[in-house]
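User: Hey, quick favor. My workstation is busy. Could you predict this chain's structure for me?
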Amino acid sequence: YADMRQISEGVAMELVGSAFLGKEAEPPVVMIAGVENRTSNYVDTKSLTDRIRNLTFQSGRVRYVNEARREQLLKEQGYQAQNVTPEQQAQIGRQLGAKFMITGSLSEMRQTSPRQVRVSKTRLNYYKLTVEVTNLTTGEIAWMTEKEFAREARLPIIGW
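Assistant: No problem, here it is.
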């Protein structure tokens, strides 16, 4: 938990301070497509991207579309078109389109101590989070970063 919190904060602060955002006249509209989990463990990558979104949104340097709720937005607009007075309806076709998309991957490598006579073995898990921002108009990668961390675990060979 602490590792994921630390790397998500690191990515967010690096993105907020990036030259890529400095080139934009106003805060760009962004969507988060997600981070792919390429590890052998369950990792809540949605929580990771939610934290990045929250921190960058609070900075005021980035605006977001709610890509996760598009189906519900369309359902509500359909309801309003049928049942709400024209003055009170949300205007259809007025949603913002994202200019950039955030994607990434979390990968893992493991190293286990060689066979020896001992009561435990050591396993080193190395993780790397890669995050990139892609311009949706050109397909060009506008910004990219990597964050790495490692964790060591001692596993008992004999236990109960």
